[in-house]
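call fold target=FHA domain-containing protein
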Amino acid sequence: MTWKIQAITGELTGQEISIDRDMWVGRHQSADIVLHAAEISRKHAAFLLKDQVLWVQDLQSSNGTFVNDLQIEHDTLLKQGDIVQFASLKFSVLEPAKNIETEPLEPVHIVVNPVVETDTILTQQQPSEAVAVSETAAIQAQEPPKTAAQQMNEQGMPELKERDSQMNVTRDGLPTNIDIPKPAPIPEGIEVIAQPEPKAIAFEEPVSRVELEKVERKNASVGLISIIALMIFAFIAWLLFK
């Protein structure tokens, strides 16, 4: 009998581990179930199978072994749905499915009907059956003649050789006896007006804020230079006319 435990915490969450013999859990590489965590002792705990029943035993680990949030000191019996915890790593116990005993099937007796001679069946034919046969023949006689399409469907498709012999093709392999359909004529009184081509609409590209700031700085620099130039000219004129 094989028990299973399923990890519900840590990196192994969702992973199932089969237990079909005595197996010990620990951080050491030689352990049957290796748990890579600093809080797990090198030899942390052991699973024991006694008479196909699963037990867990703590091997004097540093951070303890728990069953349903209770720390254990002795061998503890496990059952379906128990939570086994090694330090902070938790596993759910899954009980193996029990074998279902199948009951032997009872023999079935098949009764075969006796064979009845054909002559007897013909002699026992009822008059109503004969009338039905005659009515069916009359209905078939009254059916309308079959169309060419129905006859072709009954005959089936001709073989490939027959179709090739009936079709004339050009040097390029194209059939010569197939007419290309012509476009339908335009009825009288209907004028065909060509639709004008759509005109392209020009969109002005938006000016970015960076360009606007550059233009504003440039205008401010030009204004400042103009003011300084006017002040210099005014100072020179004051010196000349003094």
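return ok
Residues 209-240 form the longest helix (32 residues). The CA atoms of residues 167 and 173 lie 11 Å apart.
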